[in-house]
């Protein structure tokens, strides 16, 4: 059984490791420089996480939990339409402090497409968590579950494409106009 | 060696490199292992591609040309809806090119050596915009429409590569085709 003090120090360590990963990515992650940066040692990291692989899993889970918390927040504000959700998500994602998370997301996505087993749950979360979130408000506007998921799939694809464009070009204005155009098309449908 | 033969050899090499990278991913590739795989000396390979970065950029450029060529050929001969569908089929057929695109994109965000790649990331946004303008979509709207289209295709490919859930994604594309047709009307 783990002692409470261990649980606490593991949580604090995970927080710092997650911060490091957000800055440096997963691609060249190795224990030694990581340990130095977070003021620990490779031995302590292994003591707390068991292996590098389970540490990666723990970091992914921590990031996913942060994401789900943001969803909760957006849901709590009772956004009525997919357009409103998309605009709120756009406003959130383009904040400077979210930049590292965005970069890490795309980097990990690419690595996981190649080697899904190294990033357990990542791809499922990257699609399913979002579809569940997006098909919720959309489902309210009628239509069956399949229909709601198809709509959520379009919204997700668009949003992801916008973020990919944004992370590369930073062209806030052009992408903003594209979002407006899409809002217009959604308004016509209803 | 005459320049034509040189170019032909480069293209042949690039073709085989593409197949190898497609199977193994780019992070595993080094010029040495690649030379061994191709049965040529590392020195010879480096005459064509000085660094791994240069090689990856060349692979991406090759895929971009394939996409643009396909685009230009079809755009001239089809109505807008048929054209959107055929382009989507082309994306799905060449899913490995998209995967490479996302891999390099991930690298490029972290590594400035791939800056060229990020600069060229929207190089066919212009073509798309032009095509929409030709089909009667007003200029300012055409750029937003092109941005939207590109986002949808890329996002759908990310989803498809991750989940392989064709029925859901096909249903979503039908919704998009319908929305795009509505958006094209003045």
3D structure, described in words:
- The complex is a heterodimer of chains A (190) and B (186).
- By secondary structure, chain A is an all-alpha fold.
- Chain A is 79% helix and 0% strand.
- Chain A is built from nine helices and no strands.
- Chain A has helices at residues 4-24, 31-37, 42-49, 52-76, 82-93, 99-114, 122-139, 145-169, 172-189.
- In chain A, helix 1 (4-24) packs across helix 4 (52-76) and helix 4 packs parallel to helix 7 (122-139).
- The longest helix of chain A is centred in the middle third of the chain and has 25 residues, at 52-76.
- Chain A is elongated, with a radius of gyration of 19 Å.
- Chain B is mainly α and 186 residues long.
- Chain B contains ten helices and no strands.
- Chain B has helices at residues 3-24, 31-38, 42-48, 52-75, 80-93, 95-110, 115-119, 125-134, 139-163, 166-184.
- In chain B, helix 2 packs across helix 3, helix 5 (80-93) crosses helix 6 (95-110) and helix 8 (125-134) packs across helix 9 (139-163).
- The interface between A and B is large, with 46 and 43 residues.
How do the helices and strands line up, and which of them pair or pack?
The complex is a heterodimer of chains A (190) and B (186).
Chain A: H1 4-24, H2 31-37, H3 42-49, H4 52-76, H5 82-93, H6 99-114, H7 122-139, H8 145-169, H9 172-189
Helix pairs in contact in A: 1-4, 1-6, 4-7, 5-8, 7-8
Chain B: H1 3-24, H2 31-38, H3 42-48, H4 52-75, H5 80-93, H6 95-110, H7 115-119, H8 125-134, H9 139-163, H10 166-184
């Amino acid at each position: 059984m783990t002692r409470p003090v261990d649980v606490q120090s593991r949580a604090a360590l995970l927080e710092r490791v997650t911060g490091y990963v957000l800055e440096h990515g997963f691609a060249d992650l190795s224990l030694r420089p990581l340990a130095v940066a977070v003021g620990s040692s490779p031995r302590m990291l292994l003591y707390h996480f068991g292996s590098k692989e389970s540490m990666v899993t723990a970091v992914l889970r921590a990031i996913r939990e942060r994401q789900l918390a943001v969803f909760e927040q957006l849901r709590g504000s009772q956004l009525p339409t997919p357009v409103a959700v998309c605009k709120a998500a756009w406003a959130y994602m383009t904040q400077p402090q979210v930049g590292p998370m965005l970069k890490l997301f795309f980097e990990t996505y690419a690595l996981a497409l190649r080697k899904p087993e190294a990033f357990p749950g990542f791809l499922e979360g990257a699609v399913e968590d979002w579809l569940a979130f997006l098909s919720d408000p959309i489902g309210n506007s009628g239509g069956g579950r399949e229909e709601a998921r198809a709509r959520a799939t379009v919204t997700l694809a668009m949003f992801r494409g916008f973020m990919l464009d944004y992370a590369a070009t930073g062209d806030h204005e052009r992408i903003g106009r594209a979002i407006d155009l899409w809002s217009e098309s959604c308004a016509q449908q209803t | 060696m005459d320049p034509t033969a040189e170019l032909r050899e480069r293209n042949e090499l690039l073709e085989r490199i593409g197949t190898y990278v497609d199977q193994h991913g780019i992070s595993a590739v080094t010029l040495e292992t690649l030379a061994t795989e191709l049965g040529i000396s590392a020195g010879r390979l480096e005459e064509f591609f000085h660094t791994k970065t240069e090689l990856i950029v060349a692979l991406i450029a090759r895929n971009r040309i394939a996409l643009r060529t396909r685009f230009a050929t079809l755009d001239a001969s089809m109505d807008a809806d048929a054209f959107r569908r055929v382009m989507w089929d082309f994306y799905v057929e060449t899913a490995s090119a998209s995967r490479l695109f996302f891999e390099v994109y991930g690298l490029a965000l972290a590594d400035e050596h791939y800056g060229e790649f990020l600069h060229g990331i929207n190089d066919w946004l212009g073509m798309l915009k032009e095509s929409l303008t030709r089909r009667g979509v007003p200029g300012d709207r055409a750029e937003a429409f092109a941005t939207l289209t590109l986002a949808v295709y890329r996002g759908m490919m990310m989803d498809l590569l991750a989940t392989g859930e064709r029925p859901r994604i096909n249903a979503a594309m039908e919704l998009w085709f319908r929305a795009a047709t509505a958006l094209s009307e003045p």
